[in-house]
Each structure stands twice: as structure tokens, then as C-alpha cells.
Amino acid sequence: MTDPTGIAVGLSIPKFENQEKVLGEARYIADLQRANVLHAAILGSPHPHARIVGYDVSRALAAPGVVAVLTGDDVSDGRMGAFIKDEHALAKGKVLYVGEPVAAVAAETEAQARAACRLIDIEYQELPAVLSPEEGLAPDAPILHEHLADYVKVFDAGSSGNVASRTHFDEGDIDAAWDQCDVIVEGEYTTQAQAHVAIEPCGALAEYEAGGRITLWSANQSVFRVQANVCESLGLPMTKLRCLTPRVGGGFGNKMEAHIQPIVVALALKCRRNVRLILTREEDFEIVRARHPFKIRMKTGAKQDGTLVAREIEVLLDCGAFADDSPGVLGYSLLMSPGPYRIPHRRAKGQLVYTNKLRFGAFRGFGQPQVSFAGEQQIDEIAGRLGLDPIDIRRRNMLAPGEPWFVGQQVASNGLAACIDAVETASGWRDRPKVTRQGKKRRALGMSVTAHISGLLGTGAIVRVLEDGTVVLNTGATDIGQGSDTVLTQICAEALQLPVDKVSVASPDTDGSPYNWGTTASRVTYTAGRAVVGAARAVEAKLKQHASEMLECGIGDLELRPGGSVGIVGVPGAEVSFAAISGRAHWAVGGPIVGEHTLVFDQMTHDPKRAVAIGLPFARIGVFSFGAVVVEVEIDDVTGKVRVVEAWSAADVGRAINPQLVEVQLEGAFVQGMGLALFEEMVWDGARLANPSLMDYKVPTSRDAPYAIHSIIVEAPEPDGPFGAKGAGEIGINVVPSAIANAIAAATGHRHHALPLTSERVLDGLIQAEAAA
Amino acid sequence: MMDDRQDLVLQVNGTRRRVTAEGSDTLLTVLRDQLGLTGAKRGCNQGVCGSCTVEVDGWPVRGCLSLASACEGHEVVTIEGTGRDPVMAVLQRQFVERGAVQCGFCTTGMLISARRLLADEPRPDAEAVQAALSGNICRCTGYRKIVDAVLAAAEELAR
To answer: Which residues in chain B touch residue A64, judged by CB atoms under 8 angstroms apart?
Structure first.
């Protein structure tokens, strides 16, 4: 880790593409125009679980404008999946949820394609459906994936029956620990399905190239995952598919793994034409993915002085029809379930069960908002039972710098204490009455703390010096709007002591970019940033080699000088510009200057000497960010409506490469978490999603969100992070439902065990609390 | 649905544009698919998200709920046609500088709504901005920086 000099890192530079976005010039997937393009439409399954007996596509094929109809018979036996390869490009043999793509049409117009879908006749043999994890675990349950045992899995999943995966962690001696506790709280909690609602719906455009190669544009969080998923599900060699990205209108996890890219590529190959498909909002709700509903049993015990002794959690996750990122969510939520505390005795276990619903998958927070809803409420309950202040009990038990995480990974940097201090001070926690009343309204504060891991898997960067001494940075990381192009540019510029306008960013391209697993797991700043620093260092070494020959001095006597030159230390004026060096390299000596660096996060998550870990989906995860939040809520005694009045959200992000972009992550995460806490909920009517529209599924508007969201940046630099940086994307959401629930409990005296905290539930809680009092 | 195509003359961004549209074609469809004006986005096609907001006779409307044929004889302005408006220029610069833009998909609709607000109420407070933008959904920013950008633009324009 090097301290920044202020040329680029630490500056709130506006994102470079903001200008094109305010002018309406930014091109997203639906804005790409191509000649000779066919429009696709999808037919969804009407059944939650059925065998496909046969297709009759003759009427559809005869319809006006139709060029091709695609069914499961047209695609390979290949299966895709991040952890368990259980998913075809579209339904093959069976359908597993209502709305699952079972056929697709390519036609000259979108209206023709949609009309033709209605003419496809499919004979089904209906099967009994599994609509909850409990139903899936029943001894006589219908089995969704009969060949689960044969599927390729990337870790020890322990799959059997409808259990997609199971995970179990154990540390200390939990069974003996309860006797040491003076107070024990125990409860069951349920959380709901949340839709991502990136404002841009998913879409893809496949360009058929001469020779049968496909260039695929799509709304994505990783061109490399798009490539892998399409090639695995269609049995294509990766050389046959080039994946690119336009601007992306938000992701939050929704666009990380495949959506309809395999279907669009299959149609383009079948038609030998360009094919485009943009999902409607309803389809985006029904067929992509969503946040897991959790069922949680948790028990936490402490001594009289508030020292935490033991915590046990058991979770049951609804997987939906395909595993997608779910095994990761299960494992990660359990790993993080103890919270950032020193608890000597811990056990966490859970199962992930296939059901006949839309797949659940990655969504900002990756299971943490759910387990935090249980865990951070239990900390407050213990504090309440012992007469301790919620902040004091957290301070007493918080993980100190140098202490390892659950199951043993070392934590190199830890700014939790400073996060707690910051929100305590900023909110005036000590000076306020905990509950205030005015007329029929009451207000209270609530707080919550968290940690989040940024890292995971392979990443690379290539830095090239152009003839004029400017630089092109190529990382393969998709910027989904959060600003990674700008942040990585700042890191590159800082490492080479260049102004940011001397660095340009190459758009991700599977043909030309180094591998980047994806814009997910709060990882791009940390992992891609490390790769950028490494690549810039390689460029620096080459620049200095040239400069030593040009200036006739030792390499050790040289330094990078701000603005793009290499000079002799202590000798003003004795310098050569990057342009002069690069010209020499291009035309005379050594060849064009290119630096590259690749890495994979390689520190083990689990220390077998410390703990038992079964079914851990990620053997090597990443580095830890920390966070704390205080919220003030107002509750209407008459209606039960909860309004968040003000919020203070602090996060230790190691080093804020671009403080403004960190702030907006915290603010946006807060409001998305507030939606999860208070009203967002996907509702199923039997097997059918009942509210797949923004009319019926409400997300927070500018009237719901408090104006007074105060984001506070804490910097505990990560030793191997780029200029000390670690992740910022998810940390702000984890704590929101638990902090709001804690504030509601403080105000009403009622503990809530189910999300969302709707007016109806809160009013019911108020009535119950008053009846009890 | 197939055969009710009609010729329309629309006044878009100050220019007469001749298009042929189905009776059911929305203004948004015509702007995006026929006129290549893709600054207005299709986020829900149901009038909820506001990312398709454009102006008709100076008022923000949902492009996805307005029939193209009903816009004949009216002045349509999209983000692409606001280039000479000094108010929009200030709003755009404040959005850029204050980090009010994340993925950008809602941004053009937000700007159209904000411009109307400042025409009606040159010095709004935060609550008035929140109310005026409540028909434009942003899933990225949490709205704070958008409200701040509008307030800053109002202050700058008042100087």
C-alpha cells in the first residue's frame, strides 16, 4: 500500500460518462441499432412443474414475419450455473417455474414475434409443484432435478433430493456454552423476496458474423460470465463468442449471471441473422432473479456484563428452480451471521432447497440484510434485557483489529470502532431522548453494525502507453453505473502520476480485455484496482528502463514526476516525457510499452485448526469492510406507517479513491435497504408471481427516501489494497432492515420477526405492545 | 393492430418530423424507434418509473402513456432538444458535478421534471424537489445527490 499524492486518488472527480448521460447520448442495450435485425420474443411456461411432452410450432412458423422458432429440442444438453450447473439455455424436458422460457420466436418485428409466441402449442404433463422449502424437504416431495447427482458442481455442495446445497460451520463448543450465559434470546425470523428493479430491464443483441461467430452485446455485470454461461449452455467453444457491453442501467446482482443471452445467441445461430430481445418490466420481474426469502432460527447468549458468549443460527433458503448464486448466498450469509463480534462459541448451518419458483440469486448484501435482521435485533434485545445501551454492548463485543473472522480468516484492516464513533457522534445518540412523542406520532433511534467482504476470484489489468505518452487502461470490468471506470482510472493515474485526462478506459471485450470475474461482491475497486496498480508498476519499470538509457543514469536514481515524465531524483530539469519514451519504444528500442498484472484472491477463508467448515462455497473470499448506521424513524400511532426521518451511515472502505462515489453508494444502499425493510415484497399467488409490475411492486421514490441521509467515510487502509482501498458497494445495505427494526422496537416496545415492516404489521405490533403493557 | 398505420406530422425539438405510425404506437416508441431519439428510456412502459419523461407543450409527460397520434399539433421536446436552454445546461452541469448520475437510466427524465419544477418554482426547498421528482424512480442514488443538484442549480440560476 502506498499513500496517494493527491494527483488522482482521494479526489471526488465526477464520473467520466456523466456528461453523455445528462445529454441523453449514453447508449444502453435497448438503444443499439443494427441493420437487418430480427426481434425475439419469449413464451413462458404456464405451469410451475411439468414435463414437456411435445411441441407443435407449425402455426407459429407460418405466422407473418416469423423466421425461426426455438425450443428445448434446438439447444444442446449443456448446462450452466455459477456453483451447480443445473440450467439449460431454455426449458428442456421439463419446466420448473411459471414464466420459465420454454420457447422463443425470432421475427421481423417485435409485434410479430410476440404474436407468434401465442401460436406455439406445447403439450405438458403437469407434475405436483414444490412452492416452499419445507414442501421441498418433505419425504414424498416431487423432485425438481432428478439428475442433480450428475450435475457438475464447483464445490462440495452436499446436494440430495431437492436440497441444492448445505453449509455448516462450527467453532468453539456451542452446546456447552449456553450454560455460561446469563441471558439468552432466541427467535424465528422470516424475510421476503425483493426484486432488484434496476431501472433498465435486461436485454441482449447478438450480431451474426461471417463464419458463424457471434458478437453479443447485453446488459451485464460481467462479459466473461456472459461468455461462460452462453458457451456452457449452448455447447459453444468460447472462441465462437465475443461479448461486449454497452452502458448498463444498474445491476445490484440481477445482471451478473445469465438472463436471456443464451436464447438470443441460439436464435442468431439458427437464423444466421442479428437478433435482439429487450425484456419488458414484467418479464424482468418474472424470469431473471430476485433476493432470497430467508427463514432463520437464531439464538444468542451473553453474560450479565453484556459479553457475548454464543450464537447459533439455522437458515432455510428458498433456492427457486435453479441454483444460480444461491449456494454462495447460503454460505456467505452463514459466514457473516455472527456479525463483527468476538463470540467464542458459534454454530451456523443451513440448507438451500429447490422450489418451483423463479431462481433467487445475488442481490446487493448477498444474504446479509436477512441474517442481520435477526442478529442485530438480538444484540439490541440482550442490551435491553441487561439495561445496556445498544452502542455500549456493541463496543464491548466488537471485533478488534487483529482478531480473526468466524472460521478463521485473518482480518488485516478493521475500522469498525471508528464507524461506531462516527454515527454515535453525528446522530447525537448520547444527547437525545431515546423516544419522543408528538401528538399521534412517536420517534426513536435504532442502530446496527456490519462487515462485508470484497474480493473473490480472478482479475487482470493491461496498461498501454500510446505514442503521445497517454495511457489506455483495460481491465474487463463492467461499469454498471457505480463508477468503476472512473475509480480505476484514478488508481492508474495515481500510480503513474498522470492527470486523469491522460488515461482512457477500454470497454470490456472478451476478445481483448484481461479476465475479470465481474462487477459483484463489492470487488472491482479492490481486486481490479490491485491489478491496475500491478500493471502500472510494470509500465513504470519499462519507462524507467528507457529513461535510464536516455538520461544515462541508474534506474534507482529515477522517479515518476507528476504530469507524465521520468526524472532524476534531486535534479530538476533532468527528465524525459512519457511521450518521448513511448516514441523511442515504438520506433527505435524495445517495442511499445505494455504492462500487465493478473491476480486471484488467495487467502484462505477457513482455518481448519480453528473451526469446522462443511460446504463452504468460497475457499478464498477477500478483505473486510465495516459499517455502522443509526436511523431515526417516526411512527404514526393511528396507521402504523413508518417514516425514516434521518440516517447516518458510516463505512470503513479502506481508502475512498473517489469520496463522492463512496457517498452515493452508501446513500443508494440505504434507500434500497429501506425499501426492503418497509414495503418491497414479491408476492406469489400459488405458483404465479402476483405483482410483476412497478404499479404493484413499489420501490422507494424521492418522497419515501429521507433527504437527510448522512454518509460518513472511515478509512482504515487495507495493506494490500490499491492505495489502501477495499469495497464499498454493499456494506451500506446490510444494516438497514435491522437498524429500522431496532428503532421501531425502541419506539413501540414490539420486536418484529418478519419483513417487510408494513404499516399493518407495525400497527399490529403497537396494539400488541399496548395490550401487554 | 396490424393495419391501422397512419401518417403523422410531429413537431419534435423544433423540427417538423413526418412519421408513419400504428394507432397504438406511443410517443416513446415513435421517438426511439423511428426518430432515433433514444434519450428517453423505456423502464416500465406503464407510466410508473418516469424514465421516458419528455415535454409536450412545456409539460412533462410519460412518453410511454402518450399516443403518438394525439401529439400532432403539439410541441414535443426531448432531452436532445433542450441543448440551448440555459436552465437545462445548469441542471445538467450540477447533476454531473454533484454525483447525481449513477447508471444514468433515470437521468434524462429527472432532468425534464426538474426543469419544469424550476420554471414553476425558481427557489424550491428540498421537500418541493422531492415532491416534484417523485414520479421519476432512481434505484441507484438514494435521491440525496439528485435533490442537492436541483437545489444547487436553483441557487446558481437565482444569482
So the answer is: 2
